[in-house]
Q: What sequence folds into this?
């Protein structure tokens, strides 16, 4: 079987090439470098090691994806002509052409990969004299920050900051969790042996004099108790401390039952904030709702019932299976069509249910008007009442209320209002809340004019 061996050239200095990689290159029958634009290429020339490169493919490619595809094709073709081919790149684990090659590899050709020194490791060594803990190091390339969420519970190296605009993007990305004045470690050339790291404030990251593909920044881990911003994982850590030994006596005493009322109150306050025009007020109230979710999840974990991972897993699975028009083969070109996809998915999950069975699933803890509308929707099933029929039913209910003037007749009238809201495609709960708020404003205005 023919073999392609991937070798590491290490960071772009030439001096960090491992002895094992150099020995393999010296004895290779065919050696291909991804590019000659690497300091190790000069070392190989001095050593008299012959090699080929893929530099010509850069001119032929319109974009990076095409370059990777062409590189894989060229390497496979070259490997078919020899028993063993060596392909050398800076860092095999982070090289897109290596990934493309592994995915395109045909039968009859095996792939072997030998690691080496990485730029991130070199950068981590550069900050050790400052006493920075680099255990559990995370590596991120500057171009990938838009697709990732920043972390703060582990040190991280951001590499390939090759221009000022990219440095600004990285700074803004890190600013999602870190304060502007925190110390980070800037490496103008993280590839050189004994690379020097320079402490700077995060806000200065895009104000340095030089950037190229070897430029990196190392960001130390910072505890949530030392930052003004926090991630979901940070918040879970805070709640765990409150519930743990030496934590808060009140938090430690709570149960699902004692927290039930708080969940209702916080949800209502969040809903009220959503009716306003203050975005940070909404964020604040949603945080109180999240507190109830995380606190209840912590209690579940302590009793070995469920964890926050069960909560997020179940809701993520629900979102995926009920959005078949996004993640599957269903089609939905309108919000109304999405509703049908959602309901069909729910039916598959729960099995076939009668309209009554679906109505009985509506929680009794919902506000009465909201619950009445949901029940009306589910009892109607696939034959919803028209708005004309709903108006007629409401008129009949009002007539009976005028005759009887009792609580039962009033309840029937309110239920008919909820049914009419469903027929009209309106939300009865929101309509009543809005009308109540308007009445209070009108009353307040009238009071001022007296």
A:
């Amino acid at each position: 079987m023919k073999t392609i061996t991937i070798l590491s050239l290490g960071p772009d200095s030439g001096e960090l090439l491992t002895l094992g990689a150099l020995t393999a290159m010296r004895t290779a029958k065919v050696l291909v470098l991804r590019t000659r634009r690497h300091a190790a290429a000069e070392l190989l020339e001095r050593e008299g090691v012959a090699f080929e490169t893929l530099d010509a493919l850069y001119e032929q490619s319109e974009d990076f994806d095409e370059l990777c595809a062409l590189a894989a094709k060229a390497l496979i073709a070259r490997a078919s002509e020899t028993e063993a081919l060596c392909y050398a790149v800076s860092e095999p684990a982070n090289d897109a052409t290596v990934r493309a090659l592994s995915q395109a590899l045909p039968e009859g050709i095996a792939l072997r990969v030998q690691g080496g020194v990485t730029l991130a490791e070199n950068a981590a060594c550069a900050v050790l004299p400052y006493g920075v803990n680099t255990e559990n190091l995370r590596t991120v390339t500057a171009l990938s920050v838009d697709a990732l969420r920043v972390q703060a519970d582990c040190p991280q190296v951001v590499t390939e900051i090759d221009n000022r605009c990219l440095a600004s993007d990285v700074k803004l990305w890190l600013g999602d969790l870190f304060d502007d004045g925190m110390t980070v470690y800037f490496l103008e050339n993280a590839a050189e042996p004994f690379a020097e790291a320079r402490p700077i404030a995060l806000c200065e990251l895009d104000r340095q004099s030089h950037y190229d593909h070897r430029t990196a920044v190392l960001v130390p881990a910072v505890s949530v108790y030392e930052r003004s911003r926090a991630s979901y994982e940070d918040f879970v850590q805070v709640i765990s401390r409150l519930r743990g030994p030496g934590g808060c006596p009140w938090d430690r005493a709570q149960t699902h039952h004692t927290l039930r009322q708080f969940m209702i109150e916080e949800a209502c306050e969040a809903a009220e904030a959503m009716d306003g025009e203050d975005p940070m007020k909404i964020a604040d109230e949603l945080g109180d709702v999240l507190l109830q979710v995380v606190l209840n999840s912590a209690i579940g974990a302590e009793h070995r019932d469920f964890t926050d991972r069960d909560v997020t897993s179940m809701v993520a699975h629900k979102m995926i299976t009920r959005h078949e028009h996004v993640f599957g083969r269903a089609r939905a070109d309108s919000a109304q069509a999405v509703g049908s996809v959602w309901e069909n998915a729910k039916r598959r999950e729960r099995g076939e249910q009668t309209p009554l069975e679906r109505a009985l699933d509506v929680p009794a803890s919902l506000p009465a008007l909201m619950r009445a509308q949901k029940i009306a929707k589910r009892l109607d099933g696939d034959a919803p009442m028209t708005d004309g029929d709903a108006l007629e039913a409401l008129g009949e209910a009002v007539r009976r209320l005028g005759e009887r003037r009792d609580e039962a007749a009033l309840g029937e009238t309110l239920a008919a209002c909820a049914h009419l809201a469903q027929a009209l495609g309106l939300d009865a709960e929101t309509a009543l809340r809005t009308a109540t708020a308007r009445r209070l404003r009108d009353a307040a205005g009238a009071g001022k004019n007296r």
